[in-house]
Amino acid sequence: ARTRSLHASVSQASMLAMHTRKMTYGAMILALVSSAAATPPVLLGTAGNFAILTKTGISTVPSSSITGNIGCSPIAATALTGFSLSSDTATAGQFATSTQVSGKAYAANYAVPSPSKLTTAIGDLETAYTDAAGRSVTSADKLNIGAGSVTGETFTAGVHTWGSSVNFNSKIYINGTSSDIFIFQMSGNLIVTAGAEVVLVDDNSGKGTPNPANIVWQVAGHVKVGAGAHLEGIILVKNQAEFSTKASLNGRILAQTAVTLDQAVIVAPPTPAAANSGQSNNEIAVNKTNNNLIVGLVVGLGGGLILLGMLAFFYYKYLLLQAAKTKAAVPVSEVVIASAGAPAGANSKRV
After folding, report:
1. How far apart are CA 164 and CA 166, in angstroms?
2. DSSP 8-state assignment for residue 237
3. Cα 25 to the chain's mean position, in Å?
4. Residue among 120, 177, 179, 190 at smallest CA distance from 150
5. SS3 sequence, 259-281?
6. Which residue of 127, 195, 315, 322 is most buried, as measured by CB atoms within 10 A?
7. Least trusted range by pLDDT, from 20-29, 38-47, 75-84
């Protein structure tokens, strides 16, 4: 009886250990699948090296304050107005400087290699815009919120889409973690009334506050930010972006026409490693392919381990069942108890 009890305890422990391993493997796979299902970042490529990058120029009413580089291409440096630019003689004019820019100013007519680098950056800007515009809305509750009037709304991670312009005249809230991705798509304009504000909110998960580098505004029309208003995130705009008197942005302005500033404050955020800042889109594509292969291999391996664990578990159950059947097949009346050391058939009796 003690032997059978010990055997049962060992069997139960083995089954528990196997079940625990299955749960562990399952948790690993669920984590990987959840990660793969999360909204991927919009990759800026070398456009991420600029606080402001445009095709047709940047103008400022002094004094604006820009933390990061500015650039324009294919238009020449004459389209950078109000900055009182000074050419950098040490590099034979590859860039210029301004007291309003804590960074460098680049233009298509500056010394090589600036023209080719700007061409690549503009191409990356266009690719990023197309990527952001092509994302599918995450869920039905993120579609056409407030019919475009979003004052007071709180937004969580994912893709939010409007088939219209978007406006707000007070605070809106972006709630999540430092690694969450937020994409705001609109077929019209983005209008931020004077004094309005985007507020970043920690979701209390212990994973930090939303990162402006992970917030993207994809605007098919134009952007107008009123006096004293404040935005957070990367602005990918098809047309012009206008920042009125003392408006501010923690983010980047990547515009396919012009940007106008009036004593504005623009601060480019550090770009997360996941966004591959400084790489061209070709390099990013290669890295993305490699990453997808690695994730595929890991998920495949994990799935294989789960399958092996399940097969082992069911085989073990099969062996227990067979053992039970064999035991049940021997009638109790036929069990022979022999005396220790006695030859077969001697001093034995049937029970």
Report:
1. 7
2. E
3. 24
4. 190
5. EEEECCEEECCCCCHHHCCCCCH
6. 127
7. 20-29
